[in-house]
Amino acid sequence: MGYTIAQKIIKDHLLYGEMIKGREIGLRIDQTLTQDATGTMAYLQFEAMGIDRVKTELSVAYIDHNTLQAGFENADDHRYIQTVAKKHGIRFSRPGNGICHQVHLERFSRPGKTLIGSDSHTPTAGGIGMLGFGAGGLDVAVAMGGGAYYITMPRIIRVKLTGRLPDYVSAKDVILEVLKKLTVKGGVGAVIEYAGEGVKTLSVPQRATITNMGAELGATSSIFPSDEVTKEFLKAQGREEDYVELFADTDATYDEEYTVDLSTLVPLTACPHSPDNVKPVSSLSGTAINQVCIGSCTNSSMLDLLTVAKMLKGKTVHPNVSLSISPGSKQVYTMLAECGALADLISAGARILECACGPCIGMGFSPQSAGVSLRTFNRNFLARSGTKDASVYLVSPETAAASAIAGVFTDPTTLGQAPKIELPTKYLLNDNLIELPAEPERMGQVCVERGPNIKPIPVGKAPEKDLRTTLVLKVGDDITTDHIMPAGTKVLPYRSNVPKLSEFCFTVCDPAFPERAKSLGGGVILGGANYGQGSSREHAALVPLYLGIKAVVAKSFARIHVANLINFGIAPMTLENADDYDRFSQGDGLEIVDFAEAIRSKERVEIINTNTGAKANARLTLSARQREILLAGGLLNYTRLKKD
Ligand code: MIC
Ligand code: SF4
After folding, report:
1. Who lines ligand 1 at CB under 6 A?
2. pTM, two decimal places
3. Which of 31, 51, 173, 554 could form a disulfide with 527 if both were Cys (CB 3.0 to 4.6 A apart)?
4. Which of 33, 36, 38 maximizes ligand 1 atoms within 8 Å of its Cβ, making it the mutation to test the pocket?
């Protein structure tokens, strides 16, 4: 039987386990990346492991998220990451060099290799045929130390692309179409593989837009074949030698298959507050808008911004609209400047932001009260923009530009013929903002600088024999990590200060939660379906740990978050019968007899509501390794125990 693309890469990197769907497997990781909002924690954990030098082929630390420096905190964290990277063999992409996924795609991604990153959009690299996974910082730290990265052997969903995109319809519309079909839960446990004749018509940056938003499907990863188009891109990036051809075998089999005919697609938008709430742009035509943001790791490539520049040339952004543009990388930014496109953007009235995540993570550019914001980003979760009552719509760069000029939702296909954009056959190559690490013999001379904002990391404890506690919070379906641990200008500076960060935990849902959890000494959280979707931020587990959360019971969990919970010693338990959710109310007393023993050896536990006497069964779907981690009180303790 033949292999799919992902299966081939997995087979080449398999360290533990068997390639049987649903079983846990351990993979050798070739490359890692971190960004600054998760990186500080990842490197603190790497240091705690006591390993001198990274063991990967390549590890890169990017500074792209926390670039608004309203106090000393972010700047201190950047300095810490710069020095720790220099000491331990990690390349450092300086602030100003661009968004991690865009820069990695341009300069380091390699078909056929594995990559994990402490950021959920790491599968962006699938656009070049690399198998990328978003992971918690601790998992990245372990991989940097040469340890395996564990995932559940995925099922494979094949999305066959046929035809060619019409004028003004773009890669963003392809992934929005897939999100409409599969929803934010449809990719759970799966790798999405793109195939078919339509693949050839898409450039690598377009493919990367599609794999990037596979994260929004809940997918483990997404990947395209590595073909002539990939080769051309690598050649234009001066890296032709990194090319390897990679296709699925013709007799490979798939768990699910879908076809998307590119030629029938229309401009789409994801309406508030979920990336799968997709409608045609035309259905909103004429609706007034206040803000447009173009950029993010999804849509900030040369292709995207050249298209926008052509559409804005000689025009003026509508007076009711504020337009921001954040180029994805220094390469993109410099090339836009050199070819004059930047001047076209500036003169149309675009507010040019630095090449970083910016408004995508709520770092400035929050919309006005009850504002309507069109963004080329990948997430429109409630409050993520920094304005809780704003309505954020996800759109393509083409829809964004057309609407920015008109001041109302505008379907760009109504504009007639689209501008023709030629992608460069040679990109501007200058890696001067990527600092190399110290030579191994000099690493002892590097002094790691730590600011006062870096506070000790909470460490988990072994589970209690019997768990008697309180249901400290009950929440609904599709809770994102932005609900659990919000980001934005006010909160992000505290990513290395868990006590301070804890004041913001779950406040989007319930402002009283942090105080209540503290006064009760913690407890259990009850969630609905797809609990923990979105970002890879391990703070969404680390902070609940600090607040005393012992277990999370939910109807179902998102992949990265469940791994983070286990890494920090919080037991994830899945309700056997989703209706039992209704048998529990916030504030109820809970009891799980023989809790520790259940974690050691049982598949299920009985949860007793000590207020009402109601009972519910919950599954402990854990591998033997995960059980040991929970029994040790988390992965750091487990790794230390293994070392001794
Ligand atoms: C995001 O898009 O939500 C982030 C910010 O990039 C996160 C990482 C983080 O929270 O630091 C992600 O996607 O993992
Ligand atoms: Fe940055 Fe936004 Fe991409 Fe996250 S999704 S890495 S915040 S640009």
Report:
1. 37-38, 65, 119-121, 134, 361, 487, 534-537
2. 0.97
3. 554
4. 38
- Taking only the tens place, the pLDDT of each residue in 460-508 is 999 999 999 999 999 999 999 999 999 999 999 999 999 999 999 999 9
Q: Pairing relation of β-strands 291-294 and 372-375?
A: parallel
HSE-up (13 A, CA, CB side) for residue 183: 5
Rounded to whole angstroms, what are the CA distances from 219 to 17, 286, 304, 457, 573? 21, 34, 24, 29, 21
**399-421 confidence digits (pLDDT tens):** 999 999 999 999 999 999 999 99
Over the Cα atoms of the chain, what is R_g?
Answer: 24
Give the chain's domains with CATH numbers: 5-264 (3.30.499.10), 268-415 (3.30.499.10), 467-643 (3.20.19.10)
Could you tell me the two tokens for 349? Answer: 């009235």
Ligand 1 mean position to 541 CA, how many Å? 14
Q: DSSP letters along 442-491, please?
A: GGGGPPPP--TT--PPP---PPPSSEEEEEEEE--TT-BHHHHS--STTT
CA of 183 to the centre of ligand 2 (A): 20
Give the Cα separation of 638 and 511 in Å (integer). 34
Any idea which residue has 């009180």 for tokens? Answer: 633
Strand order in the sheet with 24-27: 14-16, 24-27, 149-152
